[in-house]
Amino acid sequence: MIDDRLAHSWTRIRFELRQAVTDSTWHLWLEDLQARELVGDCLVVEAPDKVRGWVGDRFGRMLQACTASVLGPDVRVELVEPGTAADGGDAATGGGGTAEDGLNPRLTFDQFVIGDANRLAHCAALAVSELPGLAYNPLFICGSPGLGKTHLLHSIANYVRAYGGGATVRYTTAEAFTNNFVGALRGGAMENFKAAHRNVDVLLVDDVQFLRAKAKTEEEFFHTFNAVHATGAQVVLTSDRPPRDLDALEDRLRARFEAGLVTELGRPDAATRLTILRKRVHQDGIEAVDESALDLIAARVDESVRALEGALIRVVAFASLTGREITGELAGEVLGGLYPDLAGRGGRVRLTVPEIQQRTCDAFGISLEDLRSSSRTATVAWARQVAMYLSRELTDATLPAIGLAFGRNHTTVMHACRRTTERIAADRVAYEAVHRLTLELGR
């Protein structure tokens, strides 16, 4: 039996792996991996004989990257054959559950940094976690992408599961709700669909703005909302704008969204941004980070928490790649092209996904049709991943919106972002290609 600390870490590693690959890849190759022990700086992972060689060859770097993100960059992974002395059942159960319901155990209230721009939303989220259905029902959290809406939803779910006395939680996104609804209609499984979404104590729905222009889905969501709310169960919703601005939704839905508490997340101030960076450094076990580097990142990157953490990851990756110390000078060099000061106001060029697509095509010498096609040739696939990654980094577009622009879904975008991050962290040529394109886009 592995100890509790390793069990928790392995759950987080499994979640990172699960998000980085397709469903078929996960179930076929990676689901049966089990952590055996952590010996010094070596994580020993058991892999069945039938998959061990393939996992090592094809997914070894990915497994290493996911492990490094949780346990630190100095920990290496060793794949071994299953042994009778090892028992990773608890970790596998926890990890599998997290992967299935999409919850991230790292996103808790303890890890949420509170500032003036998010204090009310945080207090409201904590209140509904402690008293589901009795505090604010529904709770509607709105704000631009990357400010912490999803973090609060996961925090509510993790809190209720830990302290809710067996209360049941269902977390979903508007896109997943739509896809599951359509699948249930086609497969004759509507009763199962309704039971899964209505027979819960807490229903959490992310990005409800994507219910727009889907009449049948809206109708089903309306009835689901009513059914859950009528039983006294808690409903929490997030969106990139307040209910009154969701013009494409039916009035009856908007009226229900506004019936409880509507709270908005704003951009974090300088002090909050610095605290977020310090907490991330501590959480990830990143050593020897000069305070001047954090100061520069906090000053330069002000639009969202996601962009802030992305900038830190980029600086740390470049330092690891080049063997340099993480200083203010290095941070300025790495972020200079991505976040240039403009007109003395520290702003950034506002790009769109189509602009990034076209510039990426120009840089890689491919057509826009190729970029959006199903082609998996090496050049096209890499260009597509880079374009998705830059769309995520340089625009306010959400994952579903980016996926739509490429004719794909949000999980494909997540996979592309992770693969690009891995590659630029390990491959200097890839890093320079992406950095060069980023500089061009900055101009």
Summarize this, please?
With 443 residues, this protein is of the alpha/beta class. It has helices spanning 4-20, 23-30, 49-71, 89-101, 119-130, 149-163, 174-187, 190-198, 215-230, 251-257, 270-283, 291-300, 305-322, 328-335, 353-364, 368-372, 378-394, 399-405, 410-426, 428-442, and strands at residues 34-39, 42-46, 76-80, 139-142, 169-173, 202-206, 234-239, 261-264. The N and C termini lie far apart (55 Å).
Question: Main beta sheet, described?
Answer: 5 strands, parallel
Approximate helicity band: 55-70%
Structural class, by secondary structure, is alpha/beta
Order of strands across the main sheet? 5-6-7-4-8
Q: What does the average pLDDT come to?
A: 81
Q: DSSP strand (E) fraction?
A: 5-15%
Distance between the termini: 55 Å
Helix-strand pattern: HHEEHEHHEHEHHEHEHEHHHHHHHHHH
Can you tell me the CATH architecture of the largest domain?
A: 3-Layer(aba) Sandwich
Reported by name, the CATH topology of the largest domain is Rossmann fold
Radius of gyration: 22 Å
How many strand segments?
8
Helix count, per DSSP? 20
Number of domains: 4
Mind telling me the CATH superfamily name of the largest domain?
Answer: P-loop containing nucleotide triphosphate hydrolases
